[in-house]
What does this fold into?
Amino acid sequence: MVRWPPVPLAAAGKGGGRYWDVDAARGVAMGMVVLYHLVFDLDNFGGYPIASTSGFWAAFADASAFVFVFLAGLSLTLSYRRAARPTFGKYLRRGLRIFAYGMLITLAFRLVDYGYVIFGILHLIGASIVLAYPFLRLRWANLPLGLLVIALGAYVGARDFAAGGAAGVLLAPLGVLPEGVMMPDYRPLLPWFGVVLLGVFAGNAAYLPWRERRPPGGPPGPAAGALALVGRNTLLIYLVHQPVLLAALWALGVLAPPGVAGR
It folds into this structure.
């Protein structure tokens, strides 16, 4: 049986370095996330009539999350190829670390008393890094598996399942909405782990075989290089961008400081 991936990434290209085009795509996704959160802040904290949680902006938020999560899955294939002997422990530690950052977001939202982030995008990515490990050797099988998870999530969402109390918290990762809880960031495993599997499929079945035939050329241009720099630091940017956005909007007088009547 042919092993996939056939060789570590370090043996498949120039020293197994990063692919700047994937980093640049991740930078675009991060820019979409920041733009949406800017609109969300103007709507929810500034009173501007934008309707950030419905219509176009709700679709934009889902699109930005889709790109971000899809690229997380694709990036897992690159990580798997780079490691000469990829072990589950590596992905477990990394997943738990990102999940812990998600819990910091949960705590921050409770401290400012603005809803609950029970299972947001960092929780999703942290859990998915661990759950995706058995699928990183697969190629085409990840396509139907990913679509199946997305379909299950659509079914759960269409049925409007809800649960209260501790059950609501425990079932939230599966798409069951906790009763009476406002969640400004909610990306459950059903359907979003399916998007991760689609990213793994795209990485193993399309991107990596293409890159083996056409290795990256010289360094990117200034614009692509700037996006790639953002893409290499998405976790840090994600953790700090909301406080920076709010501070900048307060400093510019766009939003009223806390405790002062807004627009």
Observations:
- Confidence is low (pLDDT under 50) at residues 1-16.
- The CA atoms of residues 9 and 75 lie 12 Å apart.
